[in-house]
Amino acid sequence: MTVDPNAATQGFPSPEPARPRPNPARYLVPALVAAAVAIALGAYGKVHDPAGTSFNLAGFSSTGAVKSWLATGAFFFAIVQLVSALMVYGKLPGPRWSAKLHRWSGRVAFLAAVPVAVHCLYALGYQSYESRVLWHSLMGCFFFGVFSAKMLLLRSERLPGWLLPIVGGLVFTALTIIWLTSALWFFRTFGVTT
Amino acid sequence: MKRSGPLVTLLAGLLLGLFLLSLNATTGEKTTASSVQESPSTKASPSPTPTETTPSASPSPSRTAAPTGVYTGRTADDSSAVAISLRDGKAIAYFCDGQNIESWLKGDVKADGSMRLTGKGTTLDATLKGSRQLSGTANVGGGDYAFTIDKTEKSSGLYRANSSVAGAKIEGGWIVLPDGEQVGILRRDGKASAAPEIDPETGAVTVDGEQLTARPVTP
Description:
The complex is a heterodimer. Chain A is mostly helical. Helices cover 65% and strands 0% of the residues of chain A. About 4% of the residues of chain A have low confidence. Chain B has 3 domains: 33 residues; 88 residues, Porin; 59 residues, no CATH class.
């Protein structure tokens, strides 16, 4: 986590010097990894018998409340992501540290989403008994797939300019749908409780 | 030049996920193991059937025999508890959130292991999954609750008491979950409140200073 992505990696000789011709693996590998992650999560959620319960955090009334607040935190940082991305791309006036803000808010959002997903997959599994749940299950798997793709794409240089915004937008859209179909539903159903 | 930051992020997420998963798996094993070991030691059933301790020995449950047993667990959203007792093709179920939502439901178990139970304005659809699990959805109080519940090792996890104390009609329902936690509602003249704990060995419970006995429910 302390590695600065912009730091020059001069310590190691670059194993792959930049090639003049575009390499299809640059797109293929992230796309395949994304598909593999999404399918693996979905398959685990479907095959694994939901445990029904999981450990809870002290101070919260239920695991649903814990997850809803973690998801809301992730969603908040996802909005920071959207704004800071617009700053990085110069669509909005922003401070010099907007790129750093984008990286770190993204990490926080992702790490906040992981425990929620672990609980979902472990305790509840992939379910489709109503449309809200189906969308949530689908988008949950899709989110971690497309997020992996985005992280891997970031490692490539000279991508088409439209690619990262599109993939980032997909990540944001997926997280929004996930939040709407879970935390918002929870707060509307059970009230805004902790 | 390749950036390593995104990879580190992904790796951190993966490690966090695996760590939480192992935490879940170990705590989960602990509860099931303790419930298996506790049920014989609680002397409620001094002769636990030895076949139940080796469920994997018979991977093909005979479909012809009517399923029997008590299944208890929590709903998927963790808000409520469900217990279903099966015997001779009949099923009785109790759904309870421990505060004010509860329902008793009854119905028949079909040959394929599915059942549709009904109560007062409530329905419950469930299907047997193998010989040790029931999975389904309950529609209670306008909400749908998915659940997957496991067969209990104890003789029963589903109790009911009807009596009158100091002129008030007392109706209580309890679900004793495998980890020993109880979810129950007590109604005094129809007014619901959280139920006092029962002694799962004897069914003894003290309501407003008077000792009652909650009895295991079977269809």
